[in-house]
Amino acid sequence: MAEDMNERARLLGALGGDIISIFPRLQKEVTEPHEDLVQITRSESELLRVVLLDPGSTVSQIAEAIAQHRSNTSTRIASLVAKGLLEKRAVEGDGREVRVFPTRRASVNLAGFQRIWADILSEVTTATTEEIEVAARVLDEIASRIALWRAGVDADGTGA
Fold first, then answer.
1. pLDDT tens digits for 11-52?
2. How confident is the model at residue 65 (pLDDT cuts 50, 70, 90)?
3. Which DSSP string corresponds to 59-90?
4. Which CATH number fits domain 2-124: 1.10.10.10, 1.10.10.410, 3.40.50.10420, 1.10.1900.20?
5. Which of 7, 67, 105, 132 has its CA 20 to 30 A from that of 87?
């Protein structure tokens, strides 16, 4: 049992290292011009990911999720609104609070970058579709749990 846990820890550590080495190459694509796609900064891409995963978040919730000051988050949201990727809607009954939503253009933009990332990754892997499905499920679970953890929620759904 202890050997299995050690092997699991070793594999997860290696996976983390691999993610870190792959991430800059894929994220670089969102910061470079591509025909019919909106170019965004690295920090805007992180913020946009949060809103795509949790539409209707408040500015404070987004700031907390990406570990930024609210004022910096507001500036980045304004930039993404100007680029047509986000929209702000006032909360009914409280005109001071706004919720942030991705636009249709944000979804189209993400799909475009996913095609670019697929092209890059397809050139460097020999994995089968089934192997990629398993990897995608594991990475999705990890990303979802990390998002919850950053928002202060334990894996069981309670506060951290």
1. 999 999 999 999 888 888 888 899 999 999 888 988 998 999
2. confident
3. HHHHHHHTT--HHHHHHHHHHHHHTTSEEEEE
4. 1.10.10.10
5. 67
